[in-house]
Design brief:
With about 190 residues, the protein is an alpha/beta fold. The protein is built from seven helices and five strands.
Length: about 190
């Protein structure tokens, strides 16, 4: 079974505990205190957080914002009908799913699967963004080196590019490492 952290009032937590096995989860920690919830989040490293909107010690919005910003696991928020005025704040904090109480088993199981899927997609997107940022840095570095070669040697762009590429292949180095050598002044094509 997967592990979940449940945050909120004890009555709602007991409801959640009864339904969690249907979604293949067990509660590894429970609390009604927001500050303690943050400690448990880091200590227990759950695969899912389900929180209600009535927590102690820290505002529910601050707690939710903190958890979602860390991107450690999917977050589901359950709210009662009295808390629906908080929906704009909840949506602003961007949890993976919002459930309106009273809880129904099927809705909770659906919320768990949906939030897991959304969390995985977010992770993939963040990895792609990171790779694109790395590629952009490498290209900037390479073009800076290419410009340096053009300015210092007077070669045309195609010739400079070919010389850098040939040197990288002959030395079995990446274009990025050759670009660093050029920028630092350690190598220039003849």
């Amino acid at each position: 079974m997967k592990r979940a952290l449940l945050i909120g009032n004890p009555r709602q937590i007991s409801e959640l505990k009864a339904i969690m096995p249907l979604a293949n989860y067990q509660a590894i920690g429970t609390t009604s205190n927001g500050i303690e919830a943050l400690r448990l989040l880091h200590r227990l490293e759950p695969e899912l957080v389900i929180m209600t909107w009535d927590v102690l010690g820290l505002s529910a919005f601050d707690l939710l914002q903190n958890i979602t910003d860390q991107r450690l696991c999917p977050v589901i928020v359950t709210v009662s009908q009295e808390d629906t005025d908080a929906l704009p704040d909840i949506i602003k904090a961007d949890p993976h799913y919002v459930l309106i109480q009273p809880l129904r088993a099927f809705e909770l199981v659906t919320a768990v699967f949906y939030s897991e899927n959304r969390f995985l997609k977010e992770r993939e997107i963040l990895k792609k963004i990171s790779r694109l940022e790395d590629d952009l840095k490498a290209r900037k570095l390479y073009y800076q080196a290419l410009l340096t070669v053009i300015q210092k040697t007077g070669y045309e762009e195609k010739v400079a590019y070919r010389k850098i590429q040939q040197y990288a292949m002959s030395q079995r180095k990446s274009l990025s490492s050759v670009a660093m050598e050029i920028i630092k002044g350690h190598w220039l094509p003849e």
